[in-house]
Amino acid sequence: MNWVKQKLNWVKNKIKRFWKWLLVGGVGIVMAATLIPQDSILTIQNRADAIDQEIKSKYTNAVEIIDKRTLTGKTYNLGEGRYLLKSTIGRLHYQDSQGQFQNIDITKRASDLAGFESVVDTAPYKLYISDKGDRRIYPDRNKPEYIDLPTPDWLNGKKGTWVSDRELKWTNPNYDVSLILREDRIKFLAVIKKPISQTSFSFNVSENGAQLFNYLGGLTYWDSSEVPVIRDLGMTYENGTLTLSWDFSGMVYPIYVDPTFAPTAGTDDVMRWGATEFRTTDASIHIGLIGGTSYSSEIRFPSVNIPQGSTINSAYITFICGFSGSSNTVSSTVYLEDADDSDIIDDYSEFDAAALTAGTAWNSIPGWTVGNPYDTPDFTADVQTVINRAGWVSNNAFGVFIKDAGSTAARFYAAYNNTTYTEPVLTVTWTEPGGVVNLPVIIIEEE
């Protein structure tokens, strides 16, 4: 079993680097937990459709430019030489069998495969799922390889309840378990409500061309402290059984167990604090000061479809609040990495070494209420700096840094790993070179 130990060590090293990689052709199927209210209801609809509706409500003449779609971005023609980009971290589109980008739609349909009630097949993955929680997952919907994940024995063969179109849930006095469908992954949320005798969960795995370790990511669990205690899950994989173990001693309930199985979009949002602290697995990311420690963050938008030399008219990011916060003063500065193409940040030294634009002040951030959207100030000048770089190419990546600037409290925004709320969205409007020419007005008076 040396190869298993070697593979486990490889995975643990990946975890230490916080699973920062991008699976370009496939998809992630995630079993993850997040710090959310126990009885919260998922509030996310199909994101691509939601963005289309938002743009059409604001710009009646807006037309999406289909051939400018990317996995994570949408571009709209607003008329008169003006354009608008919506860019995210997670996926908005999947590629069909012809290689064309289509809006992701994770609506369940009646299954065509015995043993499964439902199928999702208009996403980057293809998922068959039973009401008992059995899953057959094709990580790439266009390829025949798949992984079977039977219902764990510890759910006792009971059917779950579809509490929404996206969430299949099991509830008992000790813990709640949910399977939650997302655009590019499937989350497995375990909320341990009070002390239990179990010290591990086991999952049977049947690999059919697709290998478990190619889709295994960060494995953590954390508690409900004001500053959460976060620990790595223990892990063994032998004879087709993955076992994850923990030690809850000294932790505050409820505890959120986070076995993460295959992120696709990598984790393009990171949090940085203290002398060397750095993490990519958080469900909510902090802005400001907690316990005397300043927190900063970076969000990498992997595909920004704006031509070099365009005139930027507006630029901002919309966050969804992950935790309510209203006390004291929170101030920060928004920067872009001053680079032709921002790379994934793997550790604190890379975060600290990034060259930045001049920055835009985001002072006296008012109180935030969980679940509500909040925009940054306009940082057009910073975007213009990057777009004007000689080496900038359309569809390169933006790295947006938010650094603390003398806060006495904190705000919290939903990250890519959040189960309930969506990750940040970048909105940019611009005029392409030569797009609009403002001619002088000549008034001719009659003699």
Number of helices: 4
Tell me the overall shape: globular
User: What distance lies between the first and last C-alpha atoms, to the nearest angstrom?
Assistant: 99 Å
Structural class, from helix and strand content? Answer: mainly beta
Number of domains: 2
Portion in helices: under 10%
Residue-averaged pLDDT: 85
Major β-sheet annotation: 14 strands, antiparallel
* Rg (C-alpha, Å): 23 Å
Using DSSP, what is the number of strands? 32
Which regions have little confidence, pLDDT < 50, spanning 5+ residues?
A: 1-44, 437-447
**What percent of residues are in strands?**
35-45%
Description of the structure:
This protein folds into two domains: 2-42 and 105-261, no CATH class; 50-99 and 267-431, no CATH class. Strand 8 and strand 9 form a beta hairpin. It has helices spanning 2-16, 47-58, 348-353, 380-387; strands at 63-64, 73-79, 82-87, 93-95, 101-103, 109-110, 118-120, 126-129, 135-138, 146-149, 161-162, 167-171, 175-182, 185-192, 200-204, 206-208, 216-222, 230-232, 234-238, 241-245, 255-261, 269-273, 277-279, 284-290, 293-304, 311-323, 332-336, 360-362, 373-375, 396-404, 410-414, 425-431. It has four helices and 32 strands. The strands form five sheets. Strands 1, 2, 3, 22, 23, 24, 25, 26, 27, 28, 29, 30, 31 and 32 form a 14-stranded antiparallel sheet that branches. Strands 11-12-13-14-21-17-18 form a seven-stranded antiparallel sheet. Strands 6-7-8-9-10-16 form a six-stranded antiparallel sheet, with no helix packed on it. It has 447 residues and is mainly β.
